[in-house]
Amino acid sequence: MNKFFLNLGNQPLANNYLNSLKKKHIKYTLRLFFNTNNKIVSISKRIPSEKMFTNDYPYRSSMSKTMRHSFYELSKEIKKRFNPDKLLEIGSNDGALIKNFKMNKVIGVEPCKNLANITSKKGFLTYNKYWNYKLAKKIKDKHGNIDLIYSANTLTHISNLDDVFRSISLLLKDKGVLIIEDPSLLECIKKNSYDQFYNEHIYLFSAISVKNIISKYDLEIFDIKNLLTHGGSLRYYIKKKINKSFKISIKVKKQIDKEKKYEIDKFKTYKNFSKKVKKSKENLLKILNNIKKNNKKIIGYGATAKAVTVINYCDIDKNLISNFVDTTPEKINNYMPGKNIKILRYNKNILKNYDYAFLGAWNFKNEIINKEKKYFKKGLKFLTHIPKPQVLKYKKK
Ligand code: TYD
Questions:
Q1: What CATH number corresponds to the domain at position 218?
Q2: pLDDT tens digits for 130-169?
Q3: Are residues 18 and 113 in the same domain?
Q4: Does the residue 368 lie in any domain?
Q5: Interval between CA 166 and ligand 1 midpoint (Å)
Q6: What's 246's DSSP letter?
Q7: Ligand 1 centre from 53 Cα, in Å?
Q8: 105, 141, 159, 221: least surrounded by Cβ within 10 Å?
Q9: Which helix (H) or strand (E) holds 323?
Q10: Which of 194, 301, 327 to mutate to test the pocket of ligand 1 (most atoms within 8 A of CB)?
Q11: Atom of ligand 1 nearest to the CA of 327
Q12: Following DSSP, what letter does each residue of 122-159 receive, concatenated?
């Protein structure tokens, strides 16, 4: 049974950065539910994929050093530990992972044309298609079964999880490995990062729920890794149950036990989370209004999908945060969905004109503060809402 626990208000598609104030956003009520049977947390409304993943999708995996490094390290591990003849990536984005492999060894699947074009122009075989059973069958007919299937921050965006895993199970070799990584529900609860939810982000996974979902397709987790990316993610290493060549690591049980200890399999945890989120909104608005009263200027650092959830839920417009800044070409000079705050192109002097920087990309806090330490030292104040709204103090090392 799906039980409701939080309403994040009317939210536009978080990645729909419009280039004109004349254009209007469609908004959808963002309501969060906990499934008491399989323990999945999800949003209620499912927008058709074609509306979300368009031909000019603005999210680029390669935009941060942290992510480039994470994909590079993973590629080294994959080669050493699994040495696949063929690797297929679902949601290959701009190629941040596959570019680390020999061209003839990888296949990308990417529904957004602008992104698929980036990898196919470089010579990587890329299917500009949505991941589904029909495509899995087509790829199987053409290339046979695949040794390793990888997907990061993608499967949680696809509504029909049954189709997702049925298709993976069809295409994966019996001795093959599936690696998926996504933000961790436990980390979200711990950090009170309600901004992990937006219209495109349908699910937030835990080891408990992944175990429940994949079991139907005779798949099981055999290893698990905690990652710092996206504010705390989990990387799940999955195999077919019939494949006995991998031992099940103790880390799997440890993660599940940890999640049970935090009671993320209980509804009361989400009721509690909901209260904390409302408090977080109140406190963030208090801080922003105070800054405004003192005539200080705030810029949002990182025009993230997460920040779109925050500004729409907390009703923050350009009177409170004058602008956002971002390095992504597709976002520059467009407006933050729903609140029409203009996104400026990043340059290294941009912070000069502001007193505070609100960390829209709080998940890259260390990378950003390190990059901007000159301004931080000189008195620019960083502001974040994670794990609770606060102004960060500059600490001399
Ligand atoms: P991310 O947190 O991955 O996104 P989302 O919530 O949308 O899934 O996105 C980080 C954004 O921050 C991305 O648009 C790039 C931007 N960014 C900068 O502009 N400068 C930086 O130094 C970093 C680290 C990120």
A1: 3.40.50.150
A2: 999 999 999 999 999 999 999 999 999 999 999 999 999 9
A3: no
A4: yes
A5: 32
A6: S
A7: 18
A8: 141
A9: strand 323-326
A10: 327
A11: 19
A12: TT-EEE-S--SHHHHHHHHHHH-SEEEEEEES-GGG-S
